[in-house]
Design goal:
Structural class: alpha/beta
Number of helices: 8
Number of strands: 16
Low-confidence stretches: 231-235
Distance between the termini: 30 Å
Mean pLDDT: 94
Largest sheet: 6 strands, mixed
Shape: globular
Order of helices and strands: EEEEEHEHHEHHHEEEEEEEHEEH
Strand content: 25-35%
């Protein structure tokens, strides 16, 4: 088993951005961790092919949490690969499936009420985007401490960014896929977008939990892979 970073580069309103979904490879079977923004499936497929793997071998998609940049293309993947198994935490599954209103939408609507006239258009656009996200049934729900992927991957509850956020720990690989529980900012693990955390204190506790693992590699959805050994050498 190994983990491959999938750098997805794109432009938005004249600025360049990147996200970094992860691909877990076990033999010929592929597991994608997080599905990018809406319409990003072709970009992710292209990067999987670039890494020497066939997207047709995609067996599982793990969603770390409900946010537009993590579930945006999930419905497209399910439509093209109907046998793919979708995994998420028990807490996030109802919103991913459309059974409950997402925390992010509740937050965005609340923030909209207090925005200035200049901020209102962007706030309304974000609310509209969240309302238009397609929902997909979750096939398997997981909770803290459970083992998946042939007992090679342990689920870590890392609430804060959202209440049901999970990260993935691979002891044999010395690796963690953080989702948005941590971002790589100038070769340091920090809390992602603290101003938008559902529970900032919880997010800080989750970050400390990930750091305490002292993994060799942290695969961050924002900022990319952080190699702790390499960072130590640079210092």
């Amino acid at each position: 088993m190994n983990i491959i970073e999938l750098p997805i580069e794109f432009e938005y309103e004249g600025h360049s951005y990147s996200i970094y979904p992860s691909l877990i490879v076990s033999g010929k079977e592929l597991t994608l961790v997080d599905a990018g923004y809406p319409l990003f499936m072709p970009l992710i497929e292209k990067e999987i092919l670039k890494q020497g793997h066939d997207p047709a071998n995609l067996k599982t998609i793990i969603i770390t949490h409900y946010d537009d940049d993590h579930i945006g293309a999930l419905a497209d993947f399910r439509a093209k690969y109907p046998s793919v198994v979708i995994i998420a935490s028990e807490a996030e599954a109802p919103t991913i499936s459309g059974m409950a209103k997402s925390e992010r939408l509740v937050q965005a609507e609340a923030l909209l009420e207090h925005m200035s006239e200049e901020e209102q258009p962007s706030g309304e656009t974000f609310v509209d985007l969240l309302k238009k996200l397609q929902h997909v049934p979750v096939d398997v729900t997981v909770r803290d401490g459970e083992w998946i992927l042939n007992s090679k991957c342990q689920i870590l509850a890392t609430p804060g960014h959202t209440s049901g956020h999970i990260s993935l720990y691979f002891p044999e690989l010395g690796s963690v896929i953080t989702g948005d529980a941590a971002v790589n900012e100038q070769n340091e693990l920090v809390v992602a977008n603290p101003q938008y955390c559902i529970d900032l204190a919880g997010a800080e506790q989750s970050l400390n939990r990930l750091k305490a693992l002292q993994a060799q590699s942290y695969y961050c959805y924002h900022g990319g892979k952080l190699e702790i050994g390499l960072r130590a050498q640079q210092k």
